[in-house]
Specification:
By secondary structure, this protein is an all-alpha fold. It has a single domain, classed as Globins (Globin-like, Orthogonal Bundle). Helix content is about 65%, strand content about 0%. It is globular and about 40 Å long. About 15% of the residues are buried. Belongs to the truncated hemoglobin family. Group I subfamily. Keywords: Heme, Iron, Metal-binding, Oxygen transport, Transport. InterPro entries: Globin-like_sf (IPR009050), Globin/Proto (IPR012292), Globin_bac-like_CS (IPR019795), Hemoglobin_trunc (IPR001486), Hemoglobin_trunc_I (IPR016339).
Length: about 120
């Protein structure tokens, strides 16, 4: 792990983020706890927004121009999204990065960055 490199650079950049998002959403949509939140969603648009968000969140070039996390998830929180759902998402992200052979310190960094958004995403 190189201290002066962003997580984005250490993960392998745009290509790795794209692979991560694709596998991640396969896992999320296969999860009966999470799947109901994604019914009737434009998944290609969502995946595109997620890729741009992760590039930015992981320290890559600022590609995200969507709504802030609180506004982007308001509808999901209104439908009952809770810590249990957020924890499931974190697990799927970690499982995805594990499947892509990402080293544990980088997986932990990705988890910490994602978990730092918990309060905003859950509208607290």
């Amino acid at each position: 792990m190189h201290q002066n490199q962003s997580l984005y650079e250490q993960l392998g950049g745009e290509e790795m983020v794209s692979k991560t998002v694709t596998i991640f959403y396969q896992k999320v949509l296969a999860d009966s706890l999470l799947r109901p939140f994604f019914e009737n969603m434009n998944m290609s648009r969502l995946e595109s927004m997620q890729r741009a968000f992760l590039v930015t969140a992981f320290g890559g070039p600022n590609a995200y121009s969507g709504r802030d996390m609180r506004r982007a998830h308001t509808r999901l929180v209104a439908r009952g999204m809770s810590d249990a759902h957020f924890d499931a998402v974190l697990t799927h992200l970690d499982d995805t990065l594990t499947e892509l052979n990402v080293a544990k310190p980088l997986r932990d960094w990705a988890r910490a960055l994602t978990d730092s958004l918990r309060k905003d995403i859950l509208g607290r």
